[in-house]
Amino acid sequence: MKVYDCRGGPLPEKEVKEIARIIKEGGLIVYPSETVYGIGADIFNESAVKEVFISKNRPFDMPLSVGVSDIEMASSIAEIDDNASKLIKKFMPGPLTIIVRKKSIVPDIVTSNSHKVGIRIPDHPVAIQLIKRTGPIVATSANLHSRPDAVKMEEAKNDLGDAISAYLDGGPCTLGKPSTIVWLMDGEVEIVRQGAITKKQIEDVLRC
Fold first, then answer.
1. pTM
2. Tens digit of pLDDT for each residue in 151-190?
3. Which ranges in the chain belong to alpha helices (H)?
4. pLDDT for res 34
5. Could you give phi then psi for residue 2, rounded to 5 degrees?
6. Which of 64, 120, 201, 204 could pair with 97 in a Cys bridge, judged by C-beta atoms 3.0 to 4.6 Å apart?
7. What strand order describes the sheet that includes 2-5?
């Protein structure tokens, strides 16, 4: 287990390569975002994704969200319709997760055999820096299932310990609460979880 200090901003290139290698080799990392700390793993490595569920004691029927760096990466794994595009352009990077139809490239274990996938672009320079290097990664809170979300790296480490290969310490999360989750499918819109972005803000954007 290794701890990387990224409280001063983006990581040096050498450290980005080291962490990206851990992910590509099937390891798990904990990384900062503006909401809460997350567990990262290569979504295309089914063994690594399985380890995410195991490390959190998370039921396998609870889907994992996916972190991407931009709308182009989102489009590579999911169907981005007009509503999704509007929300991405307005609120991402930021505390929003959109649930949209996945593409077949996404392994079923990530979405618990659902045809939908949650997409998030974290508003944190280190998270974006890493995802640009690795491609899409798991974006689930870095805590044991049913335990409080980790807003400091130490809290995640206390919960997850040696199950994680590398911890990225970005200091306290600026928002400290989970993202708003919006379900988008076939023109329908549903607020699944209220977070930092309000229902009214979502509706105002979608009316445009």
1. 0.95
2. 999 999 999 999 999 999 999 999 998 999 999 988 889 9
3. 13-24, 46-56, 71-77, 82-91, 125-134, 153-160, 199-207
4. 96
5. -130, 145
6. 120
7. 2-5, 166-169, 29-31, 38-40, 140-141
